[in-house]
Amino acid sequence: MSRRLDTLRRWFDSGQTAAAGCEGPEAGRVDWLRVVPFLGLHAACFCVLLVGVSPVALWTAVALFAVRMFAITAFYHRYFSHRAFSTSRAAQFVFALLGATAVQRGPLWWAAHHRVHHRESDTENDTHSPRQGFLHAHVGWFLTRKAYPTRIEQVPDLAKYPELRWIDRFDIVPPVVLATLLLVTGIALERWAPGLGTTGGQMLVWGFCVSTVVLYHATFTINSLAHRWGSRRYETGDDSRNNALLALLTFGEGWHNNHHRYPGSVRQGFRWYEYDLSWYLLWLMSKLGLVWDLRGVPQRVREERR
Hints:
Layout: H1 2-12, H2 32-44, H3 48-51, H4 55-81, E1 86-87, H5 89-100, H6 107-119, H7 134-140, H8 156-159, H9 162-169, H10 173-192, H11 200-224, H12 244-249, H13 256-261, H14 277-287, E2 291-292, H15 299-302
Antiparallel strand pairs: 1-2
Helix pairs in contact: 4-5, 4-6, 4-11, 5-9, 7-11, 10-11
């Protein structure tokens, strides 16, 4: 009973993970009680059969997929994990909040696990290698007890910011606020703009649940498929692959073999024809003075062959 109460507290306060017993022989097992919200979000997508759809709800889902995908790929990954560019503390905070609304935990947790992945890529110490099974790499790894704590020792550069630590500890707050705002917006549109045919249920189910679940599995393909499916330009010592389809789906993350060869680059499409939307948007932000010190790809790396 005590363990279940600890787990319930961790739904709302990730700082409780340290007291929940995440070491030992059971650390690698799935924590099913903690998985309930993850499974519930998937199940909620079937509510589209009950609420129907409207253009406003559908485009809201598309827009939130795009905004949050950019927050994950450009900031959670390229900025927080790899420090591939610089930005202001205010922008850092805003994109940490946006990234947290994707329900992929907080920026410190995300960056810490990703840094370990690069250091131990496709070895027995890799947190999400497909060598341990496709499902493990795609979803299984972060559902285990040992994956819940933030490995704070991996991100001392980020841990010095109290606002980032707060987002990381209470990472459930941003998505709950987003879901609530979508529901309230839908109710308001239903009342004051009935011609749009939009309801609170539609905005919640399409704008939050469907958009988030699609975003989940698009992001997760980089851990699973991008280490199994595609071509290899560089010999990197791991199984990373370049995959144009995944790059299209994830705003440039699919050029994964490129990325594993030179993780510090702000762009992952090393050739002009390698589509990388996150890089294009970051370049535009640099012209507006919102980000700077964008780290490129050395010419010697560009000219290498496997």
